[in-house]
Amino acid sequence: MNKHIPLSVPNLKGNELKYLSRAIEEEWVSTAGPYIARFEDMIAKLVKAEKAVACQSGTAGLHLALMEAGVKRGDLVLVPTLTFIAAVNPITYVGADPVFMDCDDSLCIDPQKVRYFCENECEKTDGGLFEKASGRRVSAVVPVHVFGNIADMESLIDVAAEFGLAVVEDATEALCSKFISGRYAGRYAGTIGDVGVFSFNGNKIMTTGGGGMIVARDAEKLAHMQKISIQAKAGESDHFYDHDEIGYNYRLTNVQAALGVAQAEQMDEFIATKKRNYELYKELGIDLLLFSDNVAPNYWFYSLMTGGRVRYTMDELGKRNIDSRPIWKLIHTLKPYRGSRAYNIEKAYHYFDNILNIPCSTNLSEDDVRRVAGAIKEIL
Ligand SMILES: *Cc1c(COP(=O)(O)O)cnc(C)c1O
């Protein structure tokens, strides 16, 4: 049997072991310790943010972000249907409900449809934006930067500003992706809306095993999210148990941050490898979806267009010991969200029927890419 080629796995060949050993030798393994602040500084520098706050996961970060963005019980939040369910569940955690939106050809939320929804399905009042059908307040939009691409933030920020929506960016897949032209040239995914969230889950471009990071435009809001992540303890150095609101246990540990520091040191290399392999697939004639023209992506995931043969292609690659994955089932069709509104979904169905994600790990060698490409050409 040929060597197994996984889809997207961790690459831990830098200083991971060294820093982990140090964290353990120094016996700083929990939510205090020197690697946490160091990791936060590194990520802030990578995305040119003032400051970043580390948390347990991208999901936890999105939960904190929605609370901080002012999403309240009973509100509606606009979110794409073509996404991982972790982008949607935090909306439910805060007692709000999603309204599912379509994607455009970037695979990210379609800002035109967001605009049509706000203009035609809602009423703007001094108290905010309200959906006509239900009378419920629409308080935020959650663009997801799918597979390392970035949503059309120029259009989206304009709509959000016009209709008074908070913007929480799910940048969990787009660490270090940035705009290279237009209004946001030089700006990184996650740093354009009110709050942005990254993930360091095992399949992401860099990993801490599990972990997340939050950035925000407003420094006070960011500090507040940090406080909420440690059970809302009133002062960091205050040893009396004074908690003045409800908090969570969402802080990253020093052990995870030790991994994070070692991984962040390698981000340039990781992106360069992902880019090289993406371009090699293209050179070899593989029909991968393009990233947006105005974006320098992190090339996290590669989307093969299968011409409607997702399952067949996945099964055939599997027989050759090569992993692949279909894109997510549309969230509005899944059991927990069937009762939620889905607004004019079209393109998301098309991409769901066509996209298969193919091996993209930073461990992938040139020979691996050639073998996968050869197999795809045989199959399709
Ligand atoms: C990975 C991911 C998340 C959640 O991140 P975790 O760190 O796994 O909680 C959220 N949204 C999207 C789109 C993701 O890909």
Notes on the protein architecture:
The strands form 3 sheets. Strands 1, 2, 3, 4, 5, 6, 7, 9, 10 and 14 form a 10-stranded mixed beta sheet that branches. The protein has a 3-stranded antiparallel beta sheet with strand order 12-15-13. It is globular, with a radius of gyration of 21 Å. The mean pLDDT is 97. It is built from 12 helices and 15 strands. It is α/β, with parallel strands linked by helices. The relative contact order is 0.18. It has 2 domains: 16-264, 3-Layer(aba) Sandwich (Aspartate Aminotransferase, domain 2), CATH 3.40.640; 267-379, Aspartate Aminotransferase, domain 1 (Alpha-Beta Complex). α2 runs parallel beside α8. The chain has helices at residues 16-25, 34-46, 58-68, 89-93, 111-121, 153-163, 219-229, 254-264, 267-283, 310-319, 347-354, 366-379; strands at 53-55, 76-80, 97-101, 122-125, 128-131, 137-141, 166-170, 178-179, 195-199, 212-216, 295-296, 302-305, 325-326, 341-342, 355-358. The structure holds pyridoxal-5'-phosphate. Pyridoxal-5'-phosphate binds at residues 57-59, 83-84, 86-87, 144, 170, 172-173, 199, 201, 212.
Record the SSE blueprint.
Layout: H1 16-25, H2 34-46, E1 53-55, H3 58-68, E2 76-80, H4 89-93, E3 97-101, H5 111-121, E4 122-125, E5 128-131, E6 137-141, H6 153-163, E7 166-170, E8 178-179, E9 195-199, E10 212-216, H7 219-229, H8 254-264, H9 267-283, E11 295-296, E12 302-305, H10 310-319, E13 325-326, E14 341-342, H11 347-354, E15 355-358, H12 366-379
Parallel strand pairs: 2-3, 2-6, 3-14, 6-7, 7-9
Antiparallel strand pairs: 1-10, 4-5, 5-6, 8-11, 9-10, 12-15, 13-15
Helix pairs in contact: 1-8, 2-8, 5-6
The chain binds pyridoxal-5'-phosphate.
Pyridoxal-5'-phosphate binds at residues 57-59, 83-84, 86-87, 144, 170, 172-173, 199, 201, 212.
